Write the structure tokens for this entry.
Amino acid sequence: MPGSLLERWILDPRLIVILAAAATLHFVLTAPGERKGIVVGWSIAAFAFVSPICTNRPVAALRVPIRRPVRLPDPACQARDAVPLD
């Protein structure tokens, strides 16, 4: 069981670099007096994105059936293609 939990972590280097760059940019562009919660906030966000919480393998009880989008007919095409009834 612990081995399977370790396999679920998302350790994609691109994701980690993007999160680190966004956090650093936010930290640098924020005034020194307003930086209080930036590190904590970005740490929580990074944990949420990298942890098994955000995997593409949801728990069976939380699965929601995905429905295909319905294509509605275009009224302009219906009017153009209509055959007049005599």
